[in-house]
Amino acid sequence: MPKKIATGIPGLNELVDGGFPEGRVILVIGGPGTGKTIMASQFLYKGMYEDNENGIFVSLDERKEHFFSEMLQFGRDFQKAEAERKFAFLDATRMSRVLMLKEKLFKEESRSLRGKQLSMDRLIEDFQVKIAAIGAKRVVVDTLAALVYRFPDPIERRTAMLDLIESLADLNVTCLVTTELGRLSLERNALEEEFLVHGVIMMQTLFSGGTTTRAIQVEKMRGAKVNPSLVPYSIDQNGIEVFPNMPLFGEQ
Ligand SMILES: Nc1ncnc2c1ncn2[C@@H]1O[C@H](COP(=O)(O)OP(=O)(O)OP(=O)(O)O)[C@@H](O)[C@H]1O
Ligand SMILES: [Mg+2]
């Protein structure tokens, strides 16, 4: 059994049987604004400063400066962590913009899967280099949802995601990968990515009686006795906290 890694999110360890399995890939699924980026960065930050595990944030949708300033609001100084070589930020947003631009300019040529696949291989190489450079033990990829624009074709996209998740699993680091929940169907169909990862955590905002409640659920964690209940969580100036023993809507 893999060692457990403290999640860095108060209350979450209790739901996942003590922590995330070391070296495995965990998928965090949630709609816009549910706190995926905050959760993922909290996992990295606590790792760096409480567990002596360096971290890498691979961003597919946010620039570094934006990420730094957003996280400072929660008292997390990633710029300082970067200077201390505990942290590295990998900006993978440019790649997607360049690709999209190229596609517009040279429609036929760069539409080829090969071109896209090359850039995906390049991304994987880039983070292997960064991981080695700072001896990272934790990696975040935020967010797979951004790949939808790069790979509009579902089959190409699945191949790209498979590649990415497989190479993450090979790296021997604990990975949190975020993705978005399609908002089309009420009865949710399992996302393809869910079958490829070791664990799945779902974050959502529920509406009931005129109030909204944030709710989190561990849908799977291979090899662990999880608590599969849907329980509340909050976001405040300290970040995310999960309440594993609290009922979802007020008093019972
Ligand atoms: N200080 C704070 N107190 C309470 N809630 C906050 C605070 N700061 C941010 N939030 C909430 O956090 C949420 C944004 O978190 P985050 O950016 O992690 O979400 P996300 O799931 O990554 O969203 P996106 O899909 O846009 O990437 C927003 O709903 C916002 O209301
Ligand atoms: Mg986000």
Q: Which strand-content bin applies to the residues?
A: 25-35%
Biggest sheet, in brief? 9 strands, mixed
Unreliably modeled segments: none
Structural class: alpha/beta
Q: Helix fraction?
A: 25-40%
End-to-end separation in angstroms reads 37 Å
Shape: globular
Query: What is the averaged pLDDT score?
Result: 87
Secondary structure: number of strands: 11
Question: Could you explain the architecture of this structure?
Answer:
With 252 residues, this protein is an alpha/beta fold. The protein has a single domain, classed as Rossmann fold (3-Layer(aba) Sandwich). The protein has 10 helices and 11 strands. It has helices at 12-15, 36-50, 64-72, 78-83, 93-105, 107-110, 113-134, 147-150, 154-170, 192-196, and strands at residues 4-5, 20-21, 25-30, 55-59, 87-91, 138-142, 174-180, 199-208, 211-221, 231-236, 239-242. The strands form 2 sheets. Strands 5-4-6-7-3-8-9-10-11 form a 9-stranded mixed beta sheet, with helices on both faces. Strands 1-2 form a two-stranded antiparallel sheet. Helix 7 runs parallel beside helix 9. It is globular. The termini are far apart. The relative contact order is 0.21. Residues 36-37, 142-143 line the site of magnesium ion.
Write the layout of secondary structure elements.
Blueprint: E1 4-5, H1 12-15, E2 20-21, E3 25-30, H2 36-50, E4 55-59, H3 64-72, H4 78-83, E5 87-91, H5 93-105, H6 107-110, H7 113-134, E6 138-142, H8 147-150, H9 154-170, E7 174-180, H10 192-196, E8 199-208, E9 211-221, E10 231-236, E11 239-242
Helix pairs in contact: 7-9
This protein binds adenosine-5'-triphosphate and magnesium ion.
